[in-house]
Amino acid sequence: MKVREFIDRIGMKVWTGNNEGLENNIKGVYACDLLSWVMSHAQKGDAWITVHTNLNIAAVAVLTEVSCIIVPEDIIVEQDTIKRAENEGVVILGTSLSTYEICCRAYEYGIGL
């Protein structure tokens, strides 16, 4: 599933992301807030769910080549992070859903199966 389609199905806010990034394929979902763990376990093409909003999430996203970052529970993303993500071509999305709810929706839509 493309990031754009997942956005439309859930109704997520796009914090950062251009047309190219919104066409990324989501191959799986990875939910974790320990950045060092994400760096060693997230897979290329995963949609990464995290409550972190600091600059480091953009760097981790680039390193791991995740398809996008999803910030749950209407958490506000820091402006410095938005600028860094835009410069790096990282897609950051936001939603009112919890991490659990996002994972359930991804499963319902066949992501990662």
Q: Which labels suit this protein?
A:
Udp-n-acetylmuramoylalanyl-d-glutamate--2,6- Diaminopimelate Ligase, Chain: A, domain 1; DRTGG; alpha/beta; 5 strands; 6 helices; 113 residues; globular
Describe the protein.
By secondary structure, this protein is α/β, with parallel strands linked by helices. It has one domain: 3-Layer(aba) Sandwich (Udp-n-acetylmuramoylalanyl-d-glutamate--2,6- Diaminopimelate Ligase, Chain: A, domain 1), CATH 3.40.1390.20. The chain is 42% helix and 17% strand. The chain has six helices and five strands, in the order H-E-H-E-H-E-H-E-H-E-H. Helix 3 runs parallel beside helix 4 and helix 4 runs parallel beside helix 5. The longest helix has 10 residues. The protein is globular and about 35 Å long. 35% of the residues are buried.
Task: Give the structure's gist in a few sentences.
The protein is an alpha/beta fold and 113 residues long. It has helices spanning 3-10, 19-22, 35-41, 56-64, 79-88, 99-108; strands spanning 13-16, 28-31, 46-49, 68-71, 92-94.
